[in-house]
Write a structure and sequence with these properties.
Blueprint lengths: L1 H14 L19 H5 L11 E15 L2 E14 L9 E7 L10 H5 L3 E3 L5 E3 L9 H4 L5 E14 L2 E6 L6 E6 L2 E7 L8 E10 L8 E2 L6 E11 L3 E7 L5 E11 L10 E15 L10 H4 L2 E9 L7 E2 L4 H9 L5 H4 L6 H6 L8 H13 L3 E2 L10 H7 L1 E2 L1 H14 L3 E7 L19 E8 L3 E5 L21 E2 L11 H4 L8
Parallel strand pairs: 1-12, 18-19
Antiparallel strand pairs: 1-2, 2-10, 3-9, 4-5, 6-7, 6-10, 8-9, 11-16, 12-15, 13-16, 14-15, 16-17, 20-21, 20-23, 21-22
Helix pairs in contact: 9-11
Length: 503
């Protein structure tokens, strides 16, 4: 209990008193847009905007079941279409997860901890697979989501009369995108210049140990957005804001009704909880600018589980330090443990006598040429590799598959290697204030040499050359694992340049 109070106090000190609440009145009632909203023709802070989010309310609530929790995301959004081209914001796409039982190669804990970003224009960017073992039997049991209670209405002015057109249930499409990623899609009907769009839905999620990122800033301006998260005290999260504009943040004590969903006859009781509230007003639209990571610039909130407990268990820490993250990753069967295996190219490596090359950089380059002559990158980033023999047989693989084969072969050639984990530039930087597993999406291979220090190579590197990384991987904050270090960060921008030469 003492640690909870300390944690709450730290969060309060970090988040509170960012700015005073705005004076402008905000219509937070859905179902009846105001006359001002219906008749507005421009958004004063950004007169050339094609549309504006008038109000967005996201309420995140937990409920209990016998051996875990469920989390519901209640989303309500009101948009004003100001120009004909703004009608595209009537096209809504909501991604979610359904595990495909029995699918070969699926690691449930990896699927469960994959973050994603949802944009108001219907586009989706889902991070590649990430992982972390909370309590594997629990994680493997809770990985299902559903999108329910979808409602949408278009409000238009017909002279002095307000007309409304509702979305029909039959117009909602639930479809599989790829693997465990699904999406709910619909188009709000009768939307044109001047329309006020309102839509809402509930995401029922078993992923109680990972909160979805919340992006307050969008491609169009946002007049008002508020995130409210109520979490039982047994689940402790680290929160961090990101982006170019600040949100007003507040953390307060609360309580929840402990009513088991799985046991309707059980008597309800009260439990302590924490409520986190983030509010943003007059958020400018975010533009996709070259050389700037849009996700870093986009104002929003990210969270990472720091400790958890169930009704019958004591709280357990999770990703509380980078050292702990390293331990989890190096103990993973699809990452750290796999590095120790011999490469399926070992015999060919010895036949070409590559391990006897004295210069370590030249030896590493020879290994890369060998590996890349047998396998190619398929264009996908990932954190978790399949069996390298299978990768070799297939002749291609994602970045984790190819990088794992690289590391095994480099080790068999007598070189010291380690994964350098990161988050691609287009997905945003890693959190500054706390360690993370769920935000890691990819890794490159670090090779320690006597004469040149650490050099880097990746499955997507040009022709497998050393110190040649694509723009997506030239991040400021990457984390090397596998070797003790007092400095948990390396800048891959400083390590390489587009020509692949050391700076």
């Amino acid at each position: 209990m003492k640690s909870n109070k300390i944690f709450a106090a730290v969060l309060f000190a970090v988040f509170f008193c960012l700015s005073a609440a705005a004076k402008d009145a905000v219509n937070t009632k859905f179902g009846k847009p105001t006359k001002e909203e219906l008749t507005m023709t421009t958004y004063a802070p950004e007169p050339d905007a094609e549309a504006v989010v008038l109000c967005r309310l996201t309420d995140v609530e937990y409920s209990f079941q016998t051996d875990g929790y469920l989390v519901d995301y209640h989303e309500k959004i009101r948009i004003k279409v100001l120009k004909p081209e703004g009608a595209k914001y009537a096209n809504i796409t909501i991604p979610y997860y359904i595990l495909q039982q029995g699918k070969d190669g699926v690691n449930n804990s990896q699927i469960a901890l994959r973050p994603q970003h949802i944009n108001l224009n219907g586009t989706v960017s889902a991070d590649e697979t990430v992982s972390g073992s909370i309590a594997e039997n629990i994680v493997n049991s809770y990985i299902h989501e559903s999108i329910e209670d979808i409602k949408a209405t278009a409000y238009n002015m017909d002279g002095s009369k307000t007309t409304k057109t509702k979305l029909k249930a039959a117009d909602v499409v639930q479809e599989q995108v790829e693997g465990e990623i699904w999406q709910a899609c619909f188009t709000v009907p009768d939307v044109r210049q001047g329309t006020v769009i309102e839509y809402e839905y509930t995401r029922h999620s078993e992923l109680f140990y990972r909160l979805h990122d919340w992006q307050a800033q969008q491609e169009i301006p946002v007049a008002f957005a508020r995130l409210t998260v109520t979490i039982p005290r047994h689940l402790m999260f680290n929160f961090e804001q990101h982006g170019s504009q600040q949100l007003v943040a507040k953390q307060e004590s609360s309580s929840m009704i402990y009513k088991l969903v799985s046991d309707p006859l059980a008597a309800p009781t009260n439990v302590m909880a924490y409520r986190y509230i983030f509010t943003g007003q007059n958020l400018k639209r975010i533009a996709d600018t070259p050389d700037i990571c849009v996700q870093d610039e986009r104002t929003g909130v990210t969270a990472e589980l720091s400790s958890f407990g169930l009704r019958s268990t004591a709280p357990a820490s999770y990703a509380d330090t980078w050292e702990h993250v390293d331990q989890v990753l190096m103990a993973d069967d699809n990452l750290g443990k796999m590095i120790e295996n011999h490469s399926p190219l070992r015999e060919q490596l010895q036949a070409e006598n590559i391990q006897s090359i004295a210069n370590e950089q030249e030896r590493a380059a020879a290994v890369c040429r060998l590996v890349f002559s047998h396998v190619k990158w398929n264009g996908k980033y990932a954190m978790w590799a399949r069996n390298t023999q299978e990768t070799l047989q297939q002749g291609e693989g994602n970045s984790a598959d190819v990088n794992m084969l690289l590391m095994q072969t480099l080790r068999d050639a007598g070189l010291k290697v380690n994964p350098v984990v990161m988050r691609q530039r287009n997905l945003g930087a890693l959190p500054v204030n706390f360690p993370t597993i769920s935000k890691l999406t990819n890794y490159v291979v670090g090779i320690k040499t006597r004469n040149a220090g650490t050099v880097y190579v990746d499955a997507s590197s040009t022709e497998g050359k050393l110190n040649t990384l694509p723009d997506q991987l030239q991040v400021e904050r990457a984390h090397p694992i596998g070797f003790p270090s007092n400095a948990p960060w390396v800048s891959l921008k400083k390590a390489v340049n587009p020509q692949g030469k050391r700076k």
